Amino acid sequence: xxxxxxxxxxxxxxxxxxxxxxxxxxxxxxxxxxxxxxxxxxxxxxxxxxxxxxxxxxxxxxxxxxxxxxxxxxxxxxxxxxxxxxxxxxxxxxxxxxxxxxxxxxxxxxxxxxxxxxxxxxxxxxxxxxxxxxxxxxxxxxxxxxxxxxxxxxxxxxxxxxxxxxxx
Amino acid sequence: xxxxxxxxxxxxxxxxxxxxxxxxxxxxxxxxxxxxxxxxxxxxxxxxxxxxxxxxxxxxxxxxxxxxxxxxxxxxxxxxxxxxxxxxxxxxxxxxxxxxxxxxxxxxxxxxxxxxxxxxxxxxxxxxxxxxxxxxxxxxxxxxxxxxxxxxxxxxxxxxxxxxxxxxxxxxxxxxxxxxxxxxxxxxxxxxxxxxxxxxxxxxxxxxxxxxxxxxxxxxxxxxxxxxxxxxxxxxxxxxxxxxxxxxxxxxxxxxxxxxxxxxxxx
Lengths: 168, 267
What we know:
With about 170 residues, chain A is an all-alpha fold.
């Protein structure tokens, strides 16, 4: 049990990051992570496969987030003014504005594309693992990734921008 | 994107390729400016996403997200749940024990009500029968009396209600599953207008209950009373005081030794 809890603990930072990107709200993100951990602890008995804990946690978090959105839709959404997208606004100053713009653009993506994009780019998840987390075939994951990326490119108006390779 | 397909390019950017495949893509990118542009764009997106949300993973983790704490809290909740369940079981147990201990009392309460209900059903069924209202006709008073006395296990004379204007039609034996002996006698009387009244008589039930109880069922009144020897329920459409008069008469004839019938008073 202690080993299991340590393993959970090791995944908390990544779960917070993923949840933060999904919700763009620190409290809602941490609530999601807490729910996810509580569920993992109570379902410990169901998870005896000895497999990796990480994809299992990400699956739980993804599902909890989807459920939360569904509930929200039923009860009417709460929208932060900050997160409202402004579609196709060209970025006057590349550096900071571009980040803001891409954050808004990500928010406008369909949820399934957003999940795929964040798991792969933000979390650096291997394709096979990301497909397993989202419980979809690999081909579906690839097409979601592709659609997410071309949508972002259009939303950020970057199609004809000169491309500067940014340094990590 | 001409030569390099989208999936391969993404796989390259997402670090999903082995060294050989990487090298191959890099070689192709060098000769394909369009694909290189595409790759740079995707790289910028990915960098932006990491810049935006990467720091969330380096923030100090609030204590409420500590799995060890959450596990402890869950354990506490589980124990509290068990304690609560145990408490519910305990309270239920006490309730059931109390119910068991108070059982005779509860049964008694129900018993006289059941006798009254049985008397009223028997009245309703047999009063409506013209020719077969009784099993043994009233002319055979002695036979009826000895037969019912035997069956009920208590001496039962046939009360004479002629002074009150009622002639004796006869009687029958009825099942009375509610009481120990399991049998009851129904005696039927009729006045000169054809209105009928029945007496539903059982041996004493040996249980407590009110000495006198009046219940109204639609157009019929049922007057129940019990003493140390018998219980009797008089059912008929007559007003209460008429039934009370009949009851007094029946009571003094059937159990002259016992105390006089209590008088029913409406509250």
